[in-house]
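HUMAN: Please help interpret these tokens:
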Amino acid sequence: MAKKNNKPTILRRLTQSLALFYPELAGQFMCPTCLRTYPIAQPDKISDGHIIPRAAGGGIFTPICKKCNDTFGAKQDNWFGEYVRLVKLRDSSILHTNLRRSYV
């Protein structure tokens, strides 16, 4: 698991790999979700998107732009949290969800 203090190193390596294919994007980070580019000199635009939400015990992350993480992360965390809750319930069904309107 990479730690937050390794973020500059990780971004630098990703930037170097991206520049191999797109030399004009040297020094840029490309969000794997929206494919927008951000300068690595602006790390506040890049956040840590958890592969498995932190609330569900996830600790592995990937760099992702803040906008995607805020938008996609909240929706995905909601869905995944509901899934984990259903799995933990004995004899659960879709009728036991908190978000019934989202499934109908």
Q: What stands out?
A: The first helix runs from residue 7 to 21. Confidence is low (pLDDT under 50) at residues 99-104. The first strand starts at residue 28 and ends at 30.
